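Two folds, back to back.
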Amino acid sequence: MIKKLRKLLFTISLLLLLTLPYAKILAQSESLKVDNTVNIYFFWGVGCPHCEKEKVFLERLKQEYPEVNILDFEVWGDRDNLDLMLQFAKLLDIDVQGVPFTVIGEHYIIGWLSDD
């Protein structure tokens, strides 16, 4: 009796181990279909001309791609936003000396040159 129970438990465990990775992949792909939002973290400063140009660009981007979510943080007048920017920099292992600073996933841009 114990031998049959062990065999049954082993079989169930083996089936679970074999199907679990597929269940995770399926769940992840389903969540991607439901929520395809792209978060853009935009750190800027009041009066920064480069920041203003990037703001205009990001607004156009948002209009063209509704799945884009722009989270903007003014850092010169808000210490909490500055701390958040520095936390992003630490996570990305970079030294951010100024704004604009933009983060998309693990990618980042420091400064602003043009819409290209």
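---
second:
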Amino acid sequence: MTSAADYLPSTPTLDELRAAVEGCRGCPLYACATRVVFGEGPADAVAMFVGDAPTAEEDRAGRPFLGPPGRLLERALAEVGIDRTEVYVTNVVKHARGEPRGRRRTQCAPDDAHVAACRPWLDAELAVVRPAVLVCLGAAAARAVLGEGFRVRRQRGVFLPSPLAPHVLATVHPSAVLRARGEEARRVVYTRFVDDLARVAERLRAVHAGV
């Protein structure tokens, strides 16, 4: 398997990266994806949120964090005082993995080879945006970004040292709330998710204040 590194522009901006990723053939996922799903948000965003891979809806639209998970993330961010339009959102992998089945599409998690092949795009996004706060959403994204030894259940909601950004934290993916069985279970998972994001909001306020 080749790598996305072969397709990166030499001195990238977000616009140049977004144009270049359209031609990426760094792993086989491009062949079955409908559209590439690159990150979106301000180039000077103070916070970056990273998920694992595009959903079927994101695959169709070519935009990250759409549909129920995206709306839930936006709602939770609003609760803690973070405007989604002011943060940068992206995924570790830029093409969805799955096969078309009529009007629907099967969806599978990317494997380690896909994550490794696509990593240069995320590294390039980090290099351009240079967020003060990096938030990994979900176990797959956290392991891809922070290493295979990371465990969301044990280490979520805690800021960790990392060369990727001054402040790095992992929490669950918004889809974890939607997968919880029963109204009470969803409420508990959502409340903990919001609590983690409240720590992010507090750290962002400190960054803005120069603390």
